[in-house]
């Protein structure tokens, strides 16, 4: 197990290098310059000022030199200074915003697992019945409705019509966590429920399930001991990428609820062509995704002892 984890972690390094190279090429191939103000009404900088800024950030050097310089620095987690927030290092911004996004992502993911898996199990047990149709409708609704639409709906419902939540934004108290968590969790709830239902239905049709019933086991024993354990592999597969996506920042949800997370900064960085910030966010997402895939592989062996990691 330890050798497998170490080997997989070593494979993350060339993956991140490839991600950084592709991102670097795409950013510099995009029309526009980070030296120009992004606001529509802003006055363009004079050529002398643009040259001074380009020299300050090393943008006057050949692209291959810029990339090698950046690659050397990221191994020490030195992402440089932000072009948009010129007095702040990207590393400093990440240190304050990433924990907030992770906090929101953990809460949303926990809620999605607690609701999505039971929803899928109930739908599979009551296949093609009214309960199945209701659960499938809720799951489909979660997948179909974008989180920013759901965020606006929650504000109207829980803040204006039924004033359970006193305010709509911020991150100062636990009451501020409720709406963004609900808005961010509905999509994962629907996806997890659909995967769980499909997997459970397939397992329920297997011969060993009929054998378990023939031995006199109750419905609960069959579901818990046999169906659920064998049916959790597909849902677990999607949990890693899903958590990596919502745990590294949700731009729309964080914007609407004024959550000081990494997603808000990423959107602003894209608009301003803040190269160091964009590169840092994408690399963090890539590293987080690779690590979550390793965690998923380990969970395979926990859920199903027949799976061995080599």
TrEMBL record:
Residues 98-300 form the ABC transmembrane type-1 domain. SUPFAM superfamilies: MetI-like (SSF161098). It is found in: Cell membrane. Keywords: Cell membrane, Membrane, Plasmid, Transmembrane, Transmembrane helix, Transport. GO terms for biological process: transmembrane transport. The keyword Cell membrane applies. The keyword Transport applies. InterPro entries: BPD_transp_1_N, MetI-like, MetI-like_sf. Its main location: membrane. The chain crosses the membrane at residues 9-29, 104-125, 137-165, 177-196, 232-253, 277-303. CDD domains: TM_PBP2. It comes from the Bacteria. It is a multi-pass membrane protein. One of its GO terms (cellular component) is plasma membrane. Belongs to the binding-protein-dependent transport system permease family. This is Dipeptide transport system permease protein DppB.
């Amino acid at each position: 197990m330890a050798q497998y984890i170490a080997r997989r972690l070593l494979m993350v390094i060339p993956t991140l290098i490839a991600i950084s190279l592709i991102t670097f090429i795409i950013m510099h191939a995009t029309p526009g310059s980070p030296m120009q103000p992004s606001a529509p009404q802003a006055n363009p900088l004079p050529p002398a000022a643009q040259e001074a800024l380009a020299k300050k950030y090393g943008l006057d050097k050949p692209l291959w030199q810029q990339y090698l310089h950046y690659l050397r620095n990221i191994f020490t987690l030195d992402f440089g200074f932000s072009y948009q927030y010129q007095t702040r290092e990207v590393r400093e911004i990440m240190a304050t915003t990433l924990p907030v996004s992770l906090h929101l992502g953990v809460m949303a993911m926990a809620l999605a697992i607690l609701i999505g898996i039971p929803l899928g199990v109930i739908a599979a047990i009551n296949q093609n019945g009214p309960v199945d149709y209701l659960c499938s409708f809720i799951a489909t609704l979660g997948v179909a409705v974008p989180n920013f639409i759901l965020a606006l709906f929650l504000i109207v419902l829980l803040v204006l019509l039924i004033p359970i939540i006193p305010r709509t934004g911020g991150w100062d108290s636990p009451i501020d966590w409720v709406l963004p968590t609900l808005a961010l969790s509905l999509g994962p709830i629907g996806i997890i429920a659909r995967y769980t239902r499909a997997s459970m239905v397939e397992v329920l049709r297997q011969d060993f399930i009929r054998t378990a019933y023939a031995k006199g086991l109750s419905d609960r024993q069959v579901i818990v001991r046999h169906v659920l354990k064998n049916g959790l592999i597909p849902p677990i597969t999607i949990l890693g990428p899903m958590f990596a996506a919502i745990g590294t920042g949700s731009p729309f949800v964080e914007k609407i609820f004024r959550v000081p997370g990494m997603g808000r900064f990423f959107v602003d960085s894209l608009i301003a062509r803040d190269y160091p910030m964009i590169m840092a966010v994408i690399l963090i997402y890539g590293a987080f995704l690779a690590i979550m895939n390793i965690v998923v592989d380990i969970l395979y062996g926990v859920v199903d002892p027949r799976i061995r990691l080599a």
